[in-house]
Design goal:
The chain contains nine helices and six strands, in the order H-H-H-E-E-E-H-H-E-E-H-H-E-H-H. It has helices at about 10-15, 15-20, 30-40, 60-65, 90-100, 115-125, 130-150, 165-170, 180-195, and strands at about 40, 45-50, 55, 110, 115, 160. Pfam families: PMD (PF10536).
Length: about 210
Amino acid sequence: MPMHERIIPYLERAGLYHLARLNSQWFWLDEPMVSAFIERWRPETHTFHMPFGECTVTLQDVAFQLGLPVDGEAVSGCLGEFETYMEGGRPAWEWFQDLFGELPPPNKVKQMTVHFTWFHERFSVLPPDANEETVRIYARAYIMMLLSTQLFGDKSANRVHIQWLPFVVNLDDMERYSWGSAALAWLYRCMCRVANRNVTNLAGPLQLL
């Protein structure tokens, strides 16, 4: 999804601008190398066992490579019944409509996720005469895509989870969260899952590998 110039200030304030710039021109995933790393991952220690010793991805790597904030409040939430934590139990999709101005069609929704093509089709072109509230809506959509695809992607690789709604309500508050810590924890979890021989697809912030 294009990164419009007018949403850049929101990305900068959220601490996500550097991550947003890691697009296909800046980053290319070396799949054979990643596969080699997976073979040497040890879930017991969260380290790679190499011929020269052990090594791992650290929080410093996350800060330097992705430019994410590593200080601040923890990024947390409940994936199961998280609706009950949203504004005193307010229905999540009602809140979604308030934040984005509309709801995706039923064929783009699966449980608590929205197919990323809806975001791409709906928010790719920012109107030239858009007011600031419209710009904020487009910034929310871009950040939801960024979090769900580049940082906290799952094996489907095509879904945007609406668990991120509480974080994009007030875009100016996003910088107070430690997105770097959450990304590293998610990478470790994904690596441990794929270390199981029954799991074949690797997800997570693979730029760090």
